[in-house]
From TrEMBL:
Biological process per Gene Ontology, one example term: tRNA processing
GO molecular function: tRNA-uridine aminocarboxypropyltransferase activity
Designated name of the protein: tRNA-uridine aminocarboxypropyltransferase
Enzyme class: transferase
Organism: Marinobacterium stanieri
Entry's transmembrane regions: none
Pfam families: DTW (PF03942)
InterPro entries (alphabetical): DTW, DTWD2/TAPT
Domain DTW: 17-209
Transferase listed as a keyword: yes
Length: 219
């Protein structure tokens, strides 16, 4: 994952002893890099990523960067946002909005769609972390409080199997991007990202099953 402001300390995820591809972060035996291609979309994605997410092999934000052109990744900081992010937010070429569920206390900031941007490029800022982290990022980022908010409108249930969620409609980062692309009518880009996500999900699950079988055979 290309990071515009790298995290201060690398995160060592569980399973860090597995020999992984440096790019897709999957075990080398199921690397998916040969299927990685980028396509243009009518919108851009900026991932505001919690520092604990950067090196987790189960993070799906990197799948967006791998498949959708012009995706940018910034490390989130409550008190010290990167200058690259602040400059991007001030860039008149873009019409950024935050992706987050609707709430009564910020109802006046909610957008129904991004079709009217006065010729600017629509940008979806996705808060990349656990649901608990994303809520904190949304509530405690003063530099984001002036931005409009858009809620993904989708009936999708999560097909992400690598982390547990008690609520089916809590989508992972890549699934959020797929839903947004569908929402704005960019179906080709949505299908491209979804295909890559499905391959990532299936290959990762397959390796977990192999590891479980090996442990069972050795016990």
């Amino acid at each position: 994952m290309k990071i515009e402001n790298p995290p201060r300390k690398p995160f060592v995820a569980r399973g860090s002893g597995v020999k992984r591809c440096d790019d897709c972060r999957l075990p080398e035996e199921v690397c998916i890099c040969e299927w990685r291609t980028q396509v243009d979309a009518g919108c851009h994605f900026w991932l505001l990523t919690h520092r604990y997410e950067f090196y987790k092999p189960t993070n799906t934000g990197r799948l967006i960067q791998d498949t959708i052109n012009y995706t940018r990744v910034f490390e989130w900081s409550r008190t010290e946002p990167s200058q690259e992010l602040l400059d991007a937010l001030d860039d008149s070429r873009y019409a950024p909005c935050i992706v987050f569920p609707a709430g009564e206390d910020y109802q006046e900031r909610m957008l129904d769609d991004v079709s009217r941007t006065d010729g600017r490029i629509p940008v979806f800022i996705i808060l990349d972390g656990t649901w608990r982290q994303a809520r904190r990022m949304f509530r405690h980022s003063r530099f984001l409080q002036h931005l409009p908010v858009i809620e993904p409108k989708t009936d999708r249930l999560s097909r992400y199997k690598l982390r547990r969620s008690k609520i089916d409609h809590h989508l992972c980062t890549a699934e959020v991007a797929i839903a947004l692309l569908e929402q704005v009518g960019d179906l080709d880009a949505a299908a491209h990202l979804e295909g890559y996500f499905d391959r990532f999900n299936a290959n990762y699950i397959a390796t977990r099953r192999r590891w479980a079988k090996r442990e069972s055979d050795e016990s």
